[in-house]
Amino acid sequence: MSYSDLYTPGFKLRNRDHFAAIVRIALADGVISEEEKAFIDRLAIHLEIEDEEKSSILENSNQHPINPPTTKQGRLERLYDLARMVLADHIADEAEKQLMKRMVVGLGFPTDQIESLIDNAFTLIKDGSDQDDFVAAFD
C-alpha cells in the first residue's frame, strides 16, 4: 500500500484544489517566476500531486474551487502557503494581493479582518516563520 492510499479521495481533492489556488496566485501577474515554479514543484510533492495532474492544473487552475478546510488550523496552514506563494518572487504585486484577498475570504476568514490578517501573514513570512510558528502566531 502506498502512502497516498492512506488518505480518502476527499483529502486528495482538497489537496488538489489547494494546489490549484496556489497556482492561480502564481499566475495572477501572468508569469510564473523561477522562485514560484520551485515553490509549486515542492508543494506538488508535499501535497502528492502527480506530474500529469500538476500539468493539467497549471493549464486549467481556474476550474478548481477553493474547498476550504473546516478547522482554524487548516485554514491557517492554507493561508501560510498562499502568503508564501505571493512572496515567493519577493514581489507582492497588486493582482496577486487582490486574488489572495478573495481566496482568504473563500477560506472562511472574517471579511472585516482580511487586511490585517494578510498584513500579519506577509510580515511573518518575511520574518522567516515556519508553518508551526505562523499558525501559533494567530492563536
Written account of the structure:
The protein has one domain: TerB-like. Helices cover 64% and strands 0% of the residues. The chain has 7 helices and no strands. Helix 1 crosses helix 3.
Mean pLDDT across the residues is 85
Low-pLDDT sequence parts: 1-7
Write down the overall geometry. globular
Give, in order, the helices and strands.
Answer: HHHHHHH
Alpha-carbon distance between the termini?
37 Å
Relative helix content: 55-70%
Strand content: under 5%
Assign the structural class, choosing from mainly alpha, mainly beta, alpha/beta, alpha+beta, or little secondary structure.
mainly alpha
Domain module count: 1
The first-level CATH class name: Mainly Alpha
Q: What is the level-2 CATH architecture name?
A: Orthogonal Bundle
Q: What oligomeric state do these chains adopt?
A: single chain
Count up the helices. Answer: 7
Spatial extent as radius of gyration: 14 Å
Number of strands: 0
Largest sheet: number of strands, sense, barrel closure: none
And the CATH topology?
A: TerB-like
Please sum up the structure shown.
This protein has 139 residues and is mainly α. 64% of the residues lie in helices and 0% in strands.
